[in-house]
Amino acid sequence: MTFFNKLLKNEQGATAIEYGLIAALIAVAAITAMGALGDQLDNTFTDVSTKLANA
Questions:
Q1: How far apart are CA 32 and CA 27, in angstroms?
Q2: What gap in Å lies between CA 46 and CA 54, rounded to an integer?
């Protein structure tokens, strides 16, 4: 019975899982932000290139 009580009180595994979920959430947010920034930069460089070609 004490084995099960110790198992229920052990929170190290739960903490590791929580840290993993937080890291995954941060990674998804960073990838999304960088994707949007990449699209915006692509549009900016295309616009500059077009204006230089027409000048």
A1: 9
A2: 12
